[in-house]
Structures are given as C-alpha cells and as structure tokens.
Amino acid sequence: MTAPTLRTPPVNRRRRFDLRSTTLFFVFLAVVVSVVGFAVRMVAGSVERRPAWVFVLVVVGVASLLGLRRRLHVMRAARRAAAALDEAAREAAEELEALAIPRQRVSADVAGGYDALTPEEFEEAIAALCERDGCSAVDIVGGAGDLGADVLAVTPDGLRVVLQCKRYDEAHRVGSQDLQRFGGTCFTVHEADVAVLVTTSHFTEPAMEYAEQCGIVCVDREGLQAWTDGTGPEPWR
Description:
The chain is built from seven helices and five strands. The chain has helices at residues 19-49, 51-65, 68-100, 119-132, 176-183, 205-214, 221-229; strands spanning 136-140, 151-154, 160-166, 194-199, 216-219. Helix 1 packs across helix 2 (51-65) and helix 5 (176-183) packs parallel to helix 6. The radius of gyration is 41 Å and the shape is rod-shaped. Residues 98-103 have low confidence and may be disordered.
C-alpha cells in the first residue's frame, strides 16, 4: 500500500496586490511629509525671527534627551551658579556700603612720617591738614578719573583750593610732565583759586619753572614738614 504524499506549501508565495492598503500607505506618507515640511518651515521662520529662543529650545531639548542623570547635573550646576550670583551680589552690596561710609581722616600728626603711608593715606593726611588749618568742604576725590585733583577744600578766606598729592620716594622727583598734567585741569576744569602740588619728594628745575609760569604752588618735602609742624605757612597763603 502506497502512503499519500503531503503537499508542501510554497515558501515564496506572492502576496496579492492590495490597492486599498497601498493607497492608505501613500496618503499617510504624504501627511507625514507635509507635517514635517510644515514643522521645518516653522523652525526656519523662528530661527530668522528669534534665534535666541530657538537656541534655548534646542538646548532644553538636548538636555531632556540626555536623561535624568544629566538633568540632575544641570540642576546642581544651576544651584552653584545661583549661589555664585548670590555671593557676588552680597560682595557688591558690601562694596557699596563701604563707599557710602566716609573714609576716616589720617591724623595730621603722622606717626612714622609720610613715607610710611600709602598714596591713599597720604591724600587723607593732606585733607586732615586742610581741616586742621580751618578749611571747610574738604573732600578727597583722588582716584580713577580724578582729572588731576586729589583733595578739594575751601580756605577760611573763601578761596577754592585744589591739591594734587604725590607720595613719591625721596629719590623720585616730580617732573615737568606731572606739573603739566595738573596745570591743564586745575584751573580750567576744577576752577581753582589756588592750585597746590604737594609731594614727599622734590621738584626738578623744569617743573619749578613751569609751576612759576602757571601759578601753581609747589610744596616739597621740607615745605610739607614745615606745614605739618606749624613752622611754615599753609600753601594757600
């Protein structure tokens, strides 16, 4: 007796062409392409109008894709940045508060001599001398943008005195260029009745000649000491 032979179904049977499925596929593909094109146009328009916002959105999107660990890292960085900003704001407030507090005058009777002072302290010492000798409205204006004036004061006679302070070593003489810079602003800008350049050093001969021509009073090391001791006249006399 012969056994019946089983028929094996063909492996590569061709699928029947389905017009409906094909049509739906191409319609869906067209919709996707249209949406993508519309999105691309919107992004391009946004880039032209507001590139900063687009950049922010891209950064946010990239940060989101990096995952939870990356987001936590960004949060920690943001907290550190906020803490740094808070610290900077606190320091700025302290600086403003310090600027609002008037600087304490250095006594005219300087211990250790003027050579022991910083340039800022020397200006304060000169201002103290002016106050000691009856000047009013004494103000220290030295610093960046001072245009040559370090101390302003009004004498008992009502004269406006403009002083420039040069805390130089004794070997460093005040030259004519120093006098020229001061002479260019003391009268025209600061409207001085009396212009004084006082130094812990000495003046060169050209500097003295220029000062005499312009009417600037020069107070050298010996003159400053005499003013301090009261054995010499005030510069405005």
